[in-house]
Amino acid sequence: MSLPANAPVVVGVDDSVQGMTAVRLAAHEAAAHQRTLRIVHAFNWVADPSTPLEGELRGPAERLLNEAAHAATEAEPELRLSCALIEGPALTTLLRESGSAAMMVLGDGGLSGQTAVPIDALSVQVAARAGCSVLVVRESSPPPGPVLVGIDCGAGTTNALGFAFDSASWRDTELVALRIWEADDPSEEPDPSVAEELDGALEPWRQKYPDVRVVPRVRSGDSKQILLGESHAAEVVVVSMRGEQPSRSMLGALSQTLLYHSPAPVVIVRTAHELYVQA
Questions:
Q1: pTM score, two decimals?
Q2: Of the residues 106, 141, 176, the one at which a domain ends
Q3: Which of 138, 151, 160, 169 could potentially form a cystine with 240 if both were Cys, beta carbons 3.0 to 4.6 Å apart?
Q4: What backbone phi and psi angles, to 5 degrees, belong to 175?
């Protein structure tokens, strides 16, 4: 499915410390691509006598949306903006929203600061199952740095490179394209064909984005550890989903490692945009 021209950037906001950081980064993404920013908060009110009255929950939720809208317009004063307070569980709400979104943005829920990561963490579940690319944001806005893209020259390479070049262009920063050769002996020099394959994958995008300075790197060793190490100097890290088909929606080991441990925001790029349908 092609991405509609009017598809918004959607940001899921809550009262966590990552919430407003996510809103500001989402505002920059929306403004850079002349899209509307849609701010969504899931209002999970349960009609049960033991719970607070709906009004007691709705008031703080509406104030949170107003705060988020203020943060967005402070970051991008000319931004087109809409807000939605949606009744229902956060995961279901965000997955439904992702079906018609250009991108989903949300905080990591404190993932990078935990030693044991719950498998049902909201940001991980959304990144694995969303119908669009997902940007997972850390507590603080990242310092200026390159866009880092990890590629394997496989099925998802084109989408990841397209997103990474576009991101480097509007951020006016360089792009580090990292290709890792997983050899049994990390000290072994990569085969020259690996660098040639990387250059071949980059060339069409260099022509499309001549303003982007590209730094191709070929490293030998464990892909997860190398990419994680490189992420410490990056403004944002871009990787593709595992697999090409929408049915293969689970995250690969590399994507999970970055979501759990990268200090930089991480973009999980989907290879196909699809409407999320609740099972």
A1: 0.88
A2: 141
A3: 160
A4: -115, 125
The answer to whether the CB of 205 falls within 8 A of the CB of 115 is no
* CA-derived radius of gyration, the chain: 19
Three-class secondary structure of residue 24 per DSSP = helix
pLDDT for res 119: 65
What confidence score (pLDDT) does residue 275 get? 45
Q: 168: which 2 tokens?
A: 């480097």
Amino acid at the residue 93 = T
- CA distance linking residue 115 with residue 16, whole number of Å: 19
Percent of the residues in the chain that have a pLDDT greater than 70, as a whole number? 81
Q: Do the Cβ atoms of 117 and 260 come closer than 8 Å? A: yes
Same structural domain, 111 and 127 = yes
Residue 14: how many CA atoms within 13 Å on its side-chain side?
Answer: 20
Query: Which whole number is the average pLDDT over 99-119?
Result: 78
Tens digit of each residue's pLDDT (9 = 90 or more) over 60-71? 889 999 999 999
Q: Give the C-alpha separation, 102 to 213, whole Å.
A: 26
Whether residues 148 and 129 fall in one domain: no
Q: What is the spatial distance between Cα 38 and Cα 23, in angstroms, rounded to a whole number?
A: 10
Q: The CATH number of the domain where 40 resides is what?
A: 3.40.50.12370
Q: Which of 114, 141, 168 is the last residue of a domain?
A: 141
> 123 and 73: one domain?
yes
- 276 band by pLDDT with thresholds 50, 70 and 90: very low
- What gap in Å lies between CA 14 and CA 11, rounded to an integer? 10
Over residues 152-196, the pLDDT tens digits come to 756 568 889 999 999 999 999 999 999 988 766 666 777 788 889
**Which residues on neighbouring strands pair with residue 240, listed in sequence order?**
269
The confidence score (pLDDT) of residue 271 equals 65
Contact 33, 80 (CB under 8 A): no
The position carrying tokens 């880092």 is 148
Under 8 Å between Cβ of 1 and 274 = yes
Do residues 166 and 218 both lie within one domain?
A: yes
